[in-house]
Fold Crp/Fnr family transcriptional regulator.
Amino acid sequence: MSAHIALTQNEIDALARLEERNRTLKRGSVLRRSSDSGNELFVLRKGCMMTYVILGDGARQILRFHFPGDMLGLSSILYEEAPETICALSECVVCPFEKSGLSELVETHPRLAAMILVYGQIERIALTDRLAALGRTSAKARVGSLLLELRNRLRAADREIGDSFALGLTQEEIGDATGLTAVHVNRMLRQLEEEGMIARTGGRVTIRDEIALTAASNYVDRHRGLDLAWLPKGR
């Protein structure tokens, strides 16, 4: 949140109380399965996670990728059972807290509650972009857009990241996020390389021509251009 607003000390302390406990997860560990009790929420302190659903034919559809600072499990505040599965994509540290902690935050710090609403809307619009891409854009555009999104989210969590970043995803995972097979993902990555937009080496991706990749992917960074003038004052 501090990337978008100047937090007061009281707000910093309130957010810190949500992170008093922590839990370490290995890659592949499931934090919460669909239909599990949704009594807890989480703050992701370290690592990368994903949220997914299993479709009727057994296929997995990845809905979101999560990065340090993200609040996880918010969809479960509406239901007794979690509607989605949350899984670690790397070694992660998460901070669990009770739903009542969110209730207290909303009551005592309305600006923080408003920022949670802001991030929820960013996530919703990003999912809308993904849905439109699945139905109307090429496979190359879907893969290119995902690479840009991953780079930008990693960069937001670590200012030292430039145009090169550790991908941290298998081609199957990229496919489950973009509606493609792993073979098709591999073909699109090679095509992006051949066209000089990216380079790959040792599990890392380098964005070589961001302007061309952005245009080819129809990508819009939904974390930029925010209008936050309406937010209440911090307490």
